[in-house]
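Dear colleague,

Thank you for sharing your sequence with our group. We've completed the structure prediction you requested, and as agreed, I am returning the results in plain text so they can be pasted directly into your records. Please verify that the sequence below matches your submission; if there's any discrepancy, let me know and we will rerun it promptly.
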Amino acid sequence: TLAVKQGEIHALCGENGAGKSTLMKILSGIYKTGSYNGEILIHDKKCAFKNVVDAEREGIAIIYQELNLVGEMDIAENIYLNAWPEKCGLIDENVMYQKAQTLCQELGISANLHTKTKHLGIGVQQMVEIAKALSINARILIMDEPTRGIDVGAKHEIYEIMNDLAAQGKSIIMVSSEMAELLGMSDRVYVMCDGKMRGEIKDKKDMTQAKVMSYATQF
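Please find the predicted structure tokens below.
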């Protein structure tokens, strides 16, 4: 059981093979309803996902460790990839760039919207992925290793964005292999082991590496 609270950052951790990736795929609609046991409830409403689009319609978006951007497309095109604003059956570029500009300003992305994403640093690419999630009005963001391979300055920017989103009422589920990141950023920590949820830590004073490892190694 995983209870996601509005306006909180939740850490999901455990050793390799604990079941974190499987759970993320269930929540984001990659594994469709019926291929697993259990239910997904959002505000007490039972949800059934056939695919990722169904999950997105309910406000769940996932940002993978391997970024899913098209390098030859610019920032705005990537943000609205497969969901371009249309007018008379054609892409409405004016609306697309206006909306993208608003999102980028909110996230502190200063790069020119016409810049191809292959020319962006990893940290800015991660921010573009977050903008993609917000473009579909996501209320729950699943972030897989959000700062892997990013320099210290960019990490700080990502952390600020995560805190701002939580303050706006978004819910974040973060999977990270960096213990300091997990303990420092999270309002609560869920620990998995052997495909099961072994522990929940919601008191900051109990969020220690020793406590996490005690749950992570329960077989």
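Summary note from our side: Residues 152-167 form the longest helix (16 residues).

Kind regards,
the structure core
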